[in-house]
Amino acid sequence: MTDQTAPTALDLPPLEPLPAGMQKYFGICQDKLGMVPNVLRAHAFDENKLNTFSALYNELMLGDSGLSKLEREMIAVAVSAVNGCFYCLAAHGAAVRQLSGDPKLGEMLVMNYRVAPLDARQRAMLDFAVKVTKASTEIEEADREMLRQVGFSDRDIWDIANVTGFYNMSNRVASATGMVPNDEYHAQFR
Amino acid sequence: MTDQTAPTALDLPPLEPLPAGMQKYFGICQDKLGMVPNVLRAHAFDENKLNTFSALYNELMLGDSGLSKLEREMIAVAVSAVNGCFYCLAAHGAAVRQLSGDPKLGEMLVMNYRVAPLDARQRAMLDFAVKVTKASTEIEEADREMLRQVGFSDRDIWDIANVTGFYNMSNRVASATGMVPNDEYHAQFR
Amino acid sequence: MTDQTAPTALDLPPLEPLPAGMQKYFGICQDKLGMVPNVLRAHAFDENKLNTFSALYNELMLGDSGLSKLEREMIAVAVSAVNGCFYCLAAHGAAVRQLSGDPKLGEMLVMNYRVAPLDARQRAMLDFAVKVTKASTEIEEADREMLRQVGFSDRDIWDIANVTGFYNMSNRVASATGMVPNDEYHAQFR
Amino acid sequence: MTDQTAPTALDLPPLEPLPAGMQKYFGICQDKLGMVPNVLRAHAFDENKLNTFSALYNELMLGDSGLSKLEREMIAVAVSAVNGCFYCLAAHGAAVRQLSGDPKLGEMLVMNYRVAPLDARQRAMLDFAVKVTKASTEIEEADREMLRQVGFSDRDIWDIANVTGFYNMSNRVASATGMVPNDEYHAQFR
Amino acid sequence: MTDQTAPTALDLPPLEPLPAGMQKYFGICQDKLGMVPNVLRAHAFDENKLNTFSALYNELMLGDSGLSKLEREMIAVAVSAVNGCFYCLAAHGAAVRQLSGDPKLGEMLVMNYRVAPLDARQRAMLDFAVKVTKASTEIEEADREMLRQVGFSDRDIWDIANVTGFYNMSNRVASATGMVPNDEYHAQFR
Amino acid sequence: MTDQTAPTALDLPPLEPLPAGMQKYFGICQDKLGMVPNVLRAHAFDENKLNTFSALYNELMLGDSGLSKLEREMIAVAVSAVNGCFYCLAAHGAAVRQLSGDPKLGEMLVMNYRVAPLDARQRAMLDFAVKVTKASTEIEEADREMLRQVGFSDRDIWDIANVTGFYNMSNRVASATGMVPNDEYHAQFR
To answer: Which helix (H) or strand (E) holds B20?
Structure first.
């Protein structure tokens, strides 16, 4: 972990020494990603907070789902664009570029997902995610029905709802704490 | 668990038979609360989803914090009012009435938190939570500084940010899945 | 009149002595409701203001109409929820609970009318009232036509429009003057 | 009454024959204004509705007040501009032109009240009226205090709140019923 | 040029002496319009700025187009109403009154274009212009298709888009610089 | 000009043969930029439209100004982010990366300009541009005064207003016509 910049605007230094579990986890990140994502470093002041956050993230973004990992990242970016979250747009914009192999798709989702040439299924998925983000008060059965009509199962709808919800949480935590993305993301997969 | 109504609008029946861990957890709920909250029943189709969600909830709402449990529930209600989340307003409105012993406070937070006669610290806390909910894009250092000026530590700000984020997730999952609160909440602690 | 708290944040004491007509009116309220609603006490500094306000209220809410009294109260609550009016949500939320005998319905209308299991006629009525409240600029013939299609007459539409208008007035007067609801409302008809 | 166009988009013909009281009232309008305002013709299907509406209008707009009649008309126009109410902008825009003798002032209030060269007192009055119109949820003691600081009494604040409320009602009734202003207003006092 | 009031709130005096080209241009305005529009006087501090602005204006508003000059002015007013631009509403409201010979139409477009009795083609044109003004982010092929269905060619759509864009520029320049319309506009063509 | 994709969603083919002036202009673009920007190709159906648009663009973005070229591009990006304009964010995001030599700055302005570490002068410039973009109705002398207080002259304010206005036009023309940015922009200056 060579990047020593504080991961947020809060004065919450990591545990010292880092507990063994965290040390191992961060080591794996460094090996696989070439960095420890700042959202993890931000939680390093409390082991249970890091663990519960990571467990939910892993379940939602990496667990079994009718949504591909790319589709979950697409939701992450479309939601984060509504919320203007610098951290999540940088990190998950890079993930979309990587998983899709289509850098332009990443840019479109960051800038205005409506211009992306999506099929009806993915477009309905992002329309739902964006409506849930901007106006969850107004979601009704008709909105779920539109997802079913393009082929999503009720289990898929659960996953869309939860990934959308998760980034509405993460975006707000990132903005509220002044979280900064690792510089590495900006040039990746261009 | 006598209430057999589906907890959401999705067709996601609980595991059958219920795994031992879940059965035990739901039994404890039934004993302590007189019901199994529908948000838990909604997760009963997948054990890891229930566990990761519950673990984060417990860490944020029941773990150590400079915020009292009542204050965390007050944030839950103020956030849920912005998002018009029936489930969370019913459940956490009841929690505010219970923990505060002040039914009127619960009603005020549901209806318009600005009318509640709060001290400067709690008012700043809810103003921050509501701004993060409505316009996290616009949060800046000056907003965090206002929390510090009424006595919150940076660790407290982390907790305010995360509780606020959590209900922005839960509200959206509840609305997007059509989650309904247990009827018991409505008459409690009036 | 035992509740001596000021009904608003304004320094506008009641006429002293209270004119005979007012005294009689307030006595009837006390007998029938167990209180004098603060919106009436707030007008007690000027007899003609009290009378003209009350007369319009009585005509709209209690006069002949194709809308039931409960339906008019449902409009009152749905409109007041948009405007976040503590006074009107407390008072008319209680009225919905009383007239419907369904406390959950009152909570739903306070929290998010879209979750209430209404028939098409009442749902269209509240959708119209909420659109008129949030965006009267955009109301057109097509909106009126939707009311006619679920069975409302043009006279009914007049009444929906006027009840909706009335609470858009009352909500604003209440919020602008800092009007507080009588405490009695909160626990009623739960 | 020579103008026979229906005053609203609703099929609510006037009482036939017109009751004596209404006939007299409309005759006075015709003599003094050269027309019967369509808002009165719209109520002509029900005598009590006309009377209660007119009584409140007269009390608020013509009764004793620390606000001049012009100031009350200025509020009417500034509020109606927010709500895009064609009826009220036409009718009360003409009233501002007439009472002020300053046609440009009427245009400014219709188009954007912020460009009008008002003194601090009148500007604060319209700022309050516009905030109450757009976001009454957010009105607090600090808003009332700003009115007091430019010289308004608590009784004046009551009147500002009630005139503002009244046009938030009238604007919505006019838009919801498709009320059209008499053609005479457009060219008056230019 | 007898009106010597500054055309904006900025201290940007005209070139002195006025270059011959400007002098000629302003002379023509004075002869044909009885005034030099303040938007031109505002540019008089820099000849190239005046020329490039005027050239684009003339091309869009006076050049060949499938839209009549009145239709382009109607767009100007509908857009300016959304943006609350006093300068453009005064100037182009007068133009609509002049070109249409229908003063009421001008008032309707200033106050709420939805009340104007337009044919389907012109209504679609203004709906598109207003959506582009308020929410250009959300414009998609379906919006263009609605214009084609009422008879507009793709070249017409280009012109609608560009006139709409032009007033979204001009409205903002006028408001941002405090530009004031010439007094002459207010009473014209009533 | 090797890229043969249509520059917009409209069927407006370029003049054939391309007039000599356009041919020369596009040749220069090709030589200097390695492409002909699609916004120019989109105008290639009409020589006067291309010329008047280009002349205004060149005057505002390349002419003499107290604002550096980078600052004008920063305004372009901050405005385009509010309007979600894919074309302008891609093209001017690349320009900010190029002129600043700071790819992260470009990303910040695209994603949320508030996170960029700007000095007070540039921050005030972008705050003004964003307010003019979102709410030009509300701009008043106090907003201009804030620009003067960080050192901008009235001539600078003119330029900020006009560059801001220009992109509010261009964003809307691009979105309304379905304009697509040249693919080259996405990977440039990363």
So the answer is: helix B20-33
pLDDT of amino acid B63: 97
**Which among B56, B137, B170 is the nearest to A175, CB-wise?**
B137
Mutation pick from F137, F139, F143 vs chain D, by most beta carbons of D within 10 Å, is F137
Tokens of F153: 């002259």
Residue identified by tokens 């912020």 is D114
Task: Look at F112 and A190 and tell me if their CB atoms are within 8 Å.
Answer: no
Chain F's closest residue to A183, CA to CA, is F104
Give B114's contacts in chain D (Cβ within 8 Å).
137-138, 140
Q: Quick one: average pLDDT of E73-102?
A: 98
Q: How far is CA C112 from CA B104, C106, C130, in A?
A: 19, 10, 11
Buried b (16+ CB within 10 A) or exposed e, F113-152: bbbbebeeebebbbbbbbbbbeebbebeeebbeebeeeeb
How far is it, in rounded angstroms, from Cα A135 to Cα A126? 14
F186–A104: do the CB atoms touch at under 8 Å? yes
Taking CA–CA distances from F136, the nearest residue in chain D reads: D112
pLDDT band at D4 (very low <50, low <70, confident <90, very high): low
Task: Collapse the DSSP code of A91 into the 3-class scheme (helix H, G, I; strand E, B; otherwise coil) and give the result.
Answer: helix
Which 3-state string (H, E, C) describes chain E? CCCCCCCCCCCCCCCCCCCHHHHHHHHHHHHHHCCCCHHHHHCCCCHHHHHHHHHHHHHHHHCCCCCCHHHHHHHHHHHHHHHCCHHHHHHHHHHHHHHHCCHHHHHHHHHCHHHCCCCHHHHHHHHHHHHHHHHHHHCCHHHHHHHHHCCCCHHHHHHHHHHHHHHHHHHHHHHHHCCCCCCHHHHCCC
Q: What is the pTM of this model?
A: 0.97
Cβ–Cβ < 8 Å for D72, D65:
yes
Side chain identity at residue E24, one-letter code: K
CB distance A165–B160 less than 8 Å?
A: no
pLDDT over threshold 90, residue F4: no
d(CA B144, CA A17): 28
Instruction: Quick: pLDDT tens for E22-34.
Output: 999 999 999 999 9
For residue range D91-103, list pLDDT tens digits in order: 999 999 999 999 9
pLDDT in tens, A104-155: 999 999 999 999 999 999 999 999 999 999 999 999 999 999 999 999 999 9
Judged by CB atoms within 8 Å, which residues 132-161 of F form the interface with D?
137-138, 140
Nearest CA in chain A to E142: A114
Contact assignment for F172 to E63 by CB distance below 8 Å? no
Distance from CA of B137 to the nearest CA of F (A): 7
CA dist., res. C119 & res. C124, Å (int): 9
Q: How much is the average pLDDT of E1-25? A: 89
What size, in residues, is chain A? 190
Contacts of B140 in chain F (CB under 8 A): 114
Tell me what the mean pLDDT of segment E106-133 comes to.
98
Nearest-10 crossing angle of helices F69-82, F86-100: 150
Q: Average pLDDT for residues A92-104, to the nearest whole number? A: 98
